[in-house]
Amino acid sequence: GAFIRGARDVNAQIYSNVARYFARKGLLGINVGYRLAPEARYPDGSLDIGAAVTWVSAHVRDYGGDPERIFLVGHSAGGTHVTTYVADPRARPAEGHRVHGIVLLSARLRIEARPDNPNAAGVRAYYGDDSALYEERSPVTHAANIDVPVFIVTAEYDNPYLDVYGVELAHRLGELHKRAPRFTRMTRHNHISLVANFHTDEEILGLEILDFIERG
Question: Which of 2, 14, 108, 203 is deepest in the core (most CB within 10 A)?
Fold first, then answer.
């Protein structure tokens, strides 16, 4: 929701369909929300992700889960918050993040408010009006701090530049580790259909993520 709108369940389909899909495959799926701008400002959304991870770590065994195998899947601004939580020193806990891997679905990995960014108002609401701070607050800036497996997913008809920023993070991680991270570009999909296809007959992305989790 571009940092300013949305919820764990935008409608009857999104986003609970993602948790239902993975539960149907034998995993434990937990749907997590976070505070929105303008009441919340950077890095509050990522701190909320951290609070959720702390809760899951403490309680997941009660639901048959494994606290040593927590994977975060974040879409759009949610993917931004996930990456910031894992990598940005302003959000990453000093004691570590307790995450085993991350999946980034059309995440905003570079912070900017370009004139052709349809969500520029949301960026400014959450990150502030001082564009001089955007580079330091961009998840790609902290790529060297990402110490877990990463799966980056973009859509053919994504919001402007989100696919470019996904490639940028993949390139930075590849240079750091001398091996490219897992990356998928979903053809014939847009920013929303990328998520809407979970728990339907189309399992291309779901099976890719399941394989990523099994290998992680």
Answer: 108
